[in-house]
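User: I'm writing a short report section on ligand binding and want a predicted complex to refer to. Could you take this sequence and flavin-adenine dinucleotide and write out the structure as tokens? A short remark afterwards would be nice.
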Amino acid sequence: MRQTPLPWRPTTTSQNNETSTFDVVVAGAGFAGLYLLHRLRKQGLRARAFETGGDVGGTWYWNRYPGARCDVQSVDYSYSFDPDLEVEWTWSEKYATQPEILRYLQHVADKHDLRRDISFNAKIESAV
Ligand SMILES: Cc1cc2nc3c(=O)[nH]c(=O)nc-3n(C[C@H](O)[C@H](O)[C@H](O)COP(=O)(O)OP(=O)(O)OC[C@H]3O[C@@H](n4cnc5c(N)ncnc54)[C@H](O)[C@@H]3O)c2cc1C
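Assistant: Sure. The structure tokens for the complex follow:
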């Protein structure tokens, strides 16, 4: 439920000749976009993310070269907003590889049903 009046006006988007209105539009479905979408939902806001790629993951969706992995420890390179998630997800390596990080983000999207508010293969071309 929305608790305070919005300090901004709702945003109208136009995609494939269809017009929709949201409180917030999120650019991208990487670590930041997924968390932002989750937070906005919790605040009762109408939010939609638009992602150029075909699925969630951002950096970890696009960068699939051999050997790609994080350089901070996997446990530190994880969300902390969901205590259950921290318990149910076990990293197989101290510094996770790209495929595992991508699986993690897909798991987060599944668990919180985030994809229903994300348009994939959709680039935000302008904002006014
Ligand atoms: C090999 C590698 C290792 C890394 N290791 C670490 C690490 O150990 N620790 C660390 O903190 N960081 C690391 N990073 C940095 C990493 O990019 C960030 O940690 C994090 O993934 C960034 O998330 P983000 O959601 O901010 O952006 P991104 O993951 O870049 O996601 C942005 C998304 O927005 C989409 N997008 C952009 N513009 C538009 C538009 N106009 N319309 C629609 N969609 C759009 C893009 O397609 C993209 O999917 C690493 C990066 C790489 C490549």
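A remark for your report: The CA atoms of residues 63 and 98 lie 8 Å apart. The radius of gyration is 16 Å.
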